[in-house]
Structures are given as C-alpha cells and as structure tokens.
Sequence to fold (209 residues):
Amino acid sequence: MNSSAYQKAQREGQDVVRTAILDAATHLLLDEGPAALTVRRISAEVGCSTKVIYTLFGGKDGLTEALWLEGFARFERRLLAALHGPDAMTSLRAGIDTYRACALDQPAYYRVMFQGRGSMPGFTPSPEGRQEAKRSFHLLVAGVRRCLAEGLLHGPSDVEIADVLWMAMHGAVSLELAGYFDRAEAEQRYRLLCDSVLSPFLTHDERTI
Fold:
C-alpha cells in the first residue's frame, strides 16, 4: 500500500510534515484557487487529520501566513548562500542570478509570495510576518552596501540601488513566468536588463573589467 505524503513526512520529523503541508497547500491554491484552501481539503490532500494542521498552524489563518512566509524563507536561504562569494561584485551578481533561479525552481511559491493577497482574498500579513518577509530584500541591500563600501559602486544609497534592481528583477521574472519569453531568451534579457540597471552606478574601474 502506498504511503500518504503525511506518512512519509512523519517518518522524517515535524519540520518535514510542515513542509509537506505547505507544499500541498501551495499547489491546491494555484491549481484550484483560494476556495480549495481549507483545512479539510489540505488535510485530505496530504493524508493527515485536520488536528495535525491545527496543532502546527493554529488553523487556516496561521496556515495562510505560514504559506506566504515559507516562500520567503526558501528565498532567503538561497540568497544567503549566493551573497557570500569571494568578492562583493561577484556576490552581488550571484545574488541577482539566484533571484531568477529561485523563481524558476519554485514558481508556485514565487507567485504566492508576490501575488499572495491577490490569490488569497482576505489575507493580510501580520506585522511580524512582514518583518520576516523583508529579510530577503535586506540581503540584497547588504550586497549593494558591500559594493559601495569597496568602491565598486557609487551614487545614491544602498536602498535606492537595491530598489531599482529589485524592480527590474521582479518585472523580468514575472514576465518569464507568465510565458512571454522562452528560457534561453529570458536568461539573456534578464542579464542585459540587470547589467543596464547597474551600469550607471559602476565605478570607472568596474566598467573596464
């Protein structure tokens, strides 16, 4: 007899159970819409009792916020690994590439992260949740700040440069996920766009590399 997703996860511990529930909720939301995002429907999909979901998340509201935050947590882990390269500019460019890679690797979570309130009517993140979600953006700011401190970038504040980078990255990735570009074309356009955004802020030495 095949084991349910819950039974398989249970053998590996509570964190894996939590992840299995969030993954199932994400796919239900995107495949069937917000009406499918009920404790009973999710528990049936995972193969666990509703009590398990209430114990882990406190109910639908807690599950909805956990679903939204899970995307940012995965995003943050990938960015942390990318932004600690051998030098500031290499790290920043790795972070830019990682942003797109995360979106393409886990498009379901990316849509929930940035279309959460549109795809989950009535959802409003808690103040604590908002602060958690912002940590991934703060990593991008820190990457820009490191480049400014090492004289690789110049110009406005680290937040302003990070803002325009984020706007460019998000716009390009959203169009790619919507199917407007194929993978190879989108990768080339993405790098061209991000290079164009960074170009005005590069120091003379960086422009000549």
